[in-house]
Amino acid sequence: MASVASRCSGLLLLPGQQHGFRRRSPAPFCLHPWKGSRRPGTLVCVAPPDSMEPKTDEQDVKADMGEEKVQTSSSTSQAAAENPPVPDKDLNRRVALLSTLAATGLFASQRLQLGGFSLKDLAANAVPYEEALANGKPTVVEFYADWCEVCRELAPDIYKVEQQYKDRINFVMLNVDNTKWEQELDEFGVEGIPHFAFLDKEGNEEGNVVGKLPKQYFVDNVVALASGDPTIPHSRAVGQYSSAEFRKVHQVADPRSHG
């Protein structure tokens, strides 16, 4: 019995103190003693914790591979930090081109929303004032300025009406910043712009409208002129306007200019 006990490392449990062995208590491996007459104790060998099954070669290889992956990942991160990516010049050019196209498209869309016409378009198509007074047609004279917000806002509607009646009516544009028209400013009593004067075919003023008004006011007056009516329906209407006192007087580069 003593020789068996010497070969077992772990622990043995006896139902009492027999043969010089001490009883360990409590222990999960304990065997209950027999009742009645005593019987010799039974020895149980338990493997010690350090006697675990050794790792196989495959497990060692997997562990080594895991360490290699960690080292590789660390090396990659360090290399990326030391060598930042070089900017792609082609990509930058594409982004710049797309930005330019987007800005151009925005400008075009805003122009279309305003009807696609400006004061410059109206001035380019306008009939010279002296010619309008001599050709025997009724005339609409607009006093305006490039800095006039209301003038710019009304330009698309005025252009549309002009295109419809330009064969029967003269449309004249006189820039209040042009010192050439000082006499006309006084003659027509221009204090606010846009100022629209409606003249019959002899050049006599039938009435005027000033500032921002419903489009129909302008249309009704033009129709009355084109029809040869002795009067116009809206002869003294005033809406929101810009004061002519704020005009920026400048020297005329071309005295023959009608704008």
UniProtKB/TrEMBL annotation:
Provide the primary localization. plastid
Domain Thioredoxin stretches: 77-227
Instruction: State the name under which the record lists this protein.
Output: Thioredoxin-like protein HCF164, chloroplastic
Q: Where in the cell is it found?
A: Plastid, Chloroplast
User: What Gene3D superfamilies does the record tag this protein with?
Assistant: Glutaredoxin (3.40.30.10)
Q: Does the keyword Ligase apply?
A: no
Region described as Disordered: 48-89
PROSITE patterns according to UniProt: THIOREDOXIN_2
Which intervals of the chain form a coiled coil? none
Query: Which stretches are tagged as biased composition: Low complexity?
Result: 71-81
What GO molecular function annotations does the UniProt record carry, in alphabetical order? oxidoreductase activity, acting on a sulfur group of donors, disulfide as acceptor
UniProt GO BP: cytochrome b6f complex assembly
Question: Can you quote a single GO CC term?
Answer: thylakoid lumen
Q: Which family does it belong to?
A: Belongs to the thioredoxin family.
